[in-house]
Amino acid sequence: LGRSPYREAAASQSPSVLDRLLAGLMSTVGYMRVIHARGRYGRLWGLTLSIWLCVQTNFYLITLGLGVRLSFFQVVVISLIMVPLTLLPLQGFANLGTHEIGWVAAFRVFAMPQDAALSLAVGTHFILLVFILLLGGIGAALLSRSGTSNLEHVQT
Questions:
Q1: How far is Cα 5 from Cα 38, in angstroms, rounded to an integer?
Q2: String of b and e for 94-126 (b: at least 16 CB within 10 Å)?
Q3: Exposed site from 5, 40, 62, 119, fewest CB < 10 Å?
Q4: Where are the alpha helices (DSSP H) in 39-113?
């Protein structure tokens, strides 16, 4: 293949959304093959369940801290409605909008007034954002202090 101005111009452009999606899909498939080759299914399921338990507990404790009494089951239902909304391509800064829509929609299932649901949604979003920024900052500081800058160095 010879040099072509068209090919060089196309190569210098940023990848399209479809190219990025396909690259992400291929990366995911590659990691799934690694998991399969290593036979780490139990470890992966355990880690996944632990993460979701932490997420649900986090939501539950935040709502309790904001003075709203919900059952753990209700928090799980809210999360099942809210989390898939984060996959929508219309995301605001720091997930602003979809988080609140998810909480309000979920609270409608439990017949909570819309204004109370929106107030709780904004409160939980603010607390989660502060929590994530705080933990992210601590993690970044620890990584920079240890000299580790890439997850490829982590042994599994």
A1: 45
A2: ebeebbbebbbebbeeeebeeeebbbbbebbbe
A3: 5
A4: 41-65, 72-85, 98-109
Give the Cβ contact number of residue 156 at 10 Å: 7
Q: How many Å apart are CA 84 and CA 99, to the nearest integer?
A: 10
Which string of b and e fits 31-57 if b means at least 16 CB within 10 Å? eeeeeeeeeeeeeeeeeeeeeeeeebe
Q: Is residue 103 within 8 Å of residue 121, measured between CB atoms?
A: yes
> Rounded to an integer, what is the distance from CA 112 to the centroid of its chain?
26
| Nearest-angstrom CA–CA distance, 82 and 106 | 7
Q: Rg for the chain (alpha carbons), in Å?
A: 21
* Residue bearing tokens 């979920």: 106
pLDDT per residue as tens digits for the range 39-92: 878 888 899 899 989 988 988 998 888 888 888 998 888 888 877 777 766 666
CB atoms within 10 A of CB 18: 8
